[in-house]
Design brief:
single chain; alpha+beta; four-stranded antiparallel β-sheet; three-stranded antiparallel β-sheet; 19 helices; 43% helix; extended
C-alpha cells in the first residue's frame, strides 16, 4: 500500500496576526501624545497625583539620619519624608503632632484702627466696611482652615497655600511643597515670600492647571509664550513680585499666595520634632526587645535529672546512667509532645541543677520606658501621661505646651489683616486670635469677660470669643431669639428671699490643690455640711 505524500506548508507562511482597526490605532497614538504632553487624565493618575501632594514617606536608617542631620539645609525633603514615615509607624509621634496641631481654638476679636470720633461707629461708611468684614468671615472658616495649617506646620514646618476666593466659600489650597522655594520676606516681617516652579504642571502627568488659581495659568501662558526671563529681582516689593527665572515665577500675597511657617527665625524647613528622630528610630529595636522579653517571660523549662549508677566497681566507665540513653530519648519525646509550645523539656545526667527563673524578665517594660522618655523629650507630659501628676504639675505642663504654639497666632492675625483690609474701603481693622481647646482656658476667659462686664467694661467680641463664637454669629443668634419671642418663654430667676439658705462660699470650678481635688472625689466634705 503506497503511503500518502505529506504536503508541507511553505516556509515563509506565517500565522495570521490579529488586526486592529484604524480607529484603535488612532486612539493609541492619541493616548501616547497625551502622555507626552501631560494632558491625559484617568482616575488612577489623578488619584496618584493627589496622594503625591501630601504623602511621600521614606523609611530612615541611622546612617541616612546622621547624614541629613549633618547637612540640614540640603535635606529638607528627606526630613519631611522621615516625619511622614514616623507619623505612619509611631502612634506616639502622631499623637503629639495632632496634640500641638489641634491645640489652638482660633477665637477671634478685632478693633478698628482708624476711628477718630466715636460717632463714626454709626456712620454708613463704617457699617459698609463692617459688612465687608462679616462677609469675609462668613465665607472663610478660619477655625477649620487655620487648624489644618498648624497641623501641616507642625508636620513639615512650612505650609504654602493659595487663597481661593472666587467661589461662595473661601478656602486655602495647599501647593506642592517640593515646587515652592522661600526667596524673601514681607516688608512687615509677617510672612515669608516664595517662588513657584511651573515645571510642576509640565513634569507631572494628570495635573490639571485649571484646578489651581487663575494666576498660575496667566504666569504659565506668559512664561511659555515669551520664553524670556523677565525682571527676576528678589528685592521687588510685594506688589511687583512678577519676575521669572527659567520656569520659576515669583509670587506674593497680592496673588493670594501665602506661606505659613512654624519657625519664623529660619528659612530652612525643618519639622518641629526633628530632634526627636534619633530616639524614634530606636522604637522598632526596643519593640523587638520587649517582644523577646514577653516570650522569655512566658517560657518554662522542665529539667529531669537522671540518676547515675554509684555502685559500679568495675572502674571508671562512660555513660554510668540508671537508664539507657536511647530509651530515655524515646520517653522524653513522648512527654514533649504533650507539652504546650512555651514549655520545653530537658534531661541531663547531673546530680546538681541550678534553677533558672524567667519571670523576672517582665519586671521592667523597656518599651514603655522608651515611650515615656519620648513623651518627656517632646516637652509635654500631657501627650503621654504615664506618670501620675498632681494638679499644679498638670497645669504647669499645660502652660508650657500652650507657649510652644501660642506664638503662631500673629501669623494668622497678619493674614486676616491683609486680606480683609484689602477689601474694605475706608476703615481698617486689626485682628486678634486667642484661646486654646481646653476647658480650663475657656472657663477662665468666660470668667474674665463676665467680671469685666460686672464693673462696666463690656466687650461684646471678647464675650463671643470666650464662648468660641464669631461676634456676628452671637449677634445674629441674640437678634433671632429676641424676634422669635424666646425671651418671653424664660422662667424668671429666683430671688435671694426664696432660695435655700446654703452656707459657705460658692464652689470654685478651678482646682489648683490636690487636697481639694481629693476631697471632692471622695466626698469627705459632705459630713462637714459641704457639697460634692
Amino acid at each position: 500500500m503506497a503511503r500518502k505524500k505529506r504536503v508541507r506548508p511553505p516556509k515563509n507562511l506565517q500565522p495570521e496576526q490579529e488586526k486592529i482597526s484604524e480607529r484603535e490605532v488612532y486612539d493609541v497614538l492619541t493616548f501616547a501624545k497625551s502622555m507626552i504632553s501631560g494632558t491625559v487624565y484617568t482616575p488612577e493618575l489623578v488619584n496618584a497625583r493627589m496622594k503625591d501632594l501630601t504623602l511621600n514617606p521614606t523609611e530612615p536608617t541611622n546612617d541616612m539620619l546622621d547624614t541629613a542631620l549633618k547637612d540640614p539645609k540640603n535635606n529638607e525633603d528627606n526630613f519631611r519624608a522621615i516625619s511622614e514615615w514616623f507619623e505612619m509607624t509611631d502612634m506616639l509621634y502622631k499623637r503629639n503632632l495632632y496634640y500641638y496641631g489641634n491645640m489652638l481654638s482660633f477665637d477671634l476679636t478685632w478693633t478698628c484702627t482708624n476711628i477718630k470720633k466715636y460717632e463714626e461707629y454709626n456712620s454708613a461708611a463704617y457699617k459698609k466696611d463692617l459688612a465687608i468684614l462679616y462677609d469675609f468671615l462668613d465665607k472663610f472658616d478660619s477655625k477649620f482652615e487655620f487648624n489644618r495649617a498648624v497641623r501641616q506646620m507642625t508636620r513639615q514646618d512650612a505650609y504654602f497655600v493659595a487663597l481661593r476666593d472666587e467661589g461662595e466659600r473661601y478656602t486655602l489650597q495647599e501647593l506642592p511643597i517640593k515646587y515652592c522655594k522661600i526667596t524673601g520676606k514681607s516688608r512687615d516681617d509677617a510672612s515669608y515670600l516664595f517662588d513657584f516652579d511651573l515645571m510642576y504642571f509640565i513634569r507631572n502627568i494628570a495635573v490639571d492647571i485649571n484646578t489651581y488659581p487663575k494666576v498660575f495659568r496667566n504666569k504659565y501662558r506668559k512664561r511659555i509664550e515669551d520664553g524670556k526671563n523677565n525682571g527676576y529681582i528678589p528685592s521687588s516689593s510685594t506688589n511687583n513680585r512678577n519676575g521669572e527665572w527659567v520656569y520659576w515665577v515669583q509670587t506674593s500675597p497680592v496673588d493670594n499666595m501665602w506661606c505659613f511657617k512654624f519657625n519664623m527665625e529660619e528659612a530652612t524647613q525643618l519639622p518641629y520634632f526633628t530632634p526627636l528622630f534619633k530616639d524614634l528610630i530606636l522604637t522598632p529595636i526596643v519593640r523587638n526587645l520587649q517582644t523577646n522579653k514577653y516570650i522569655i517571660a512566658a517560657s518554662r523549662m522542665l529539667v529531669g535529672l537522671i540518676p547515675l549508677l554509684k555502685d559500679n566497681k568495675s572502674g571508671n566507665s562512660r555513660n554510668k546512667m540508671a537508664i539507657d540513653p536511647v530509651t530515655l530519648g524515646q520517653f522524653a519525646s513522648v512527654v514533649k509532645q504533650g507539652l504546650p509550645n512555651p514549655v520545653s523539656l530537658g534531661v541531663v545526667p547531673f546530680d546538681d541543677m541550678k534553677e533558672f527563673d524567667f519571670s523576672k524578665a517582665q519586671e521592667t517594660n523597656i518599651y514603655r520606658e522608651h515611650n515615656l522618655n519620648i513623651g518627656i523629650n517632646t516637652g509635654s507630659r500631657m501627650s503621654y501621661p504615664a506618670q501620675q501628676q498632681n494638679a499644679i504639675e498638670s497645669q504647669s505642663s499645660l502652660d508650657v505646651d500652650k507657649m510652644m504654639v501660642e506664638y503662631l497666632y500673629p501669623q494668622f492675625n497678619h493674614f486676616l489683616n491683609y486680606y480683609v483690609n484689602k477689601r474694605t474701603k475706608k476703615y481698617k481693622f486689626n485682628f486678634f486670635f486667642e484661646g486654646f481647646k481646653f476647658n480650663s482656658d475657656r472657663q477662665n476667659r468666660i470668667d474674665t469677660a463676665m467680671k469685666m462686664a460686672s464693673v462696666g467694661i463690656t466687650s461684646f467680641p471678647k464675650i463671643a470669643a470666650a464662648w468660641g463664637m464669631l461676634p456676628q454669629d452671637l449677634q445674629r443668634q441674640m437678634a433671632e431669639s429676641s424676634m422669635m419671642g424666646w425671651i418671653d418663654n424664660l422662667v424668671p430667676l429666683l430671688n435671694m428671699y426664696n432660695q435655700s439658705q446654703d452656707q459657705g462660699r460658692p464652689q470654685n470650678q478651678q482646682i489648683n490643690n490636690d487636697n481639694t481635688l481629693k476631697s471632692r472625689e471622695t466626698g469627705s466634705n459632705v459630713q462637714k455640711g459641704g457639697k460634692i
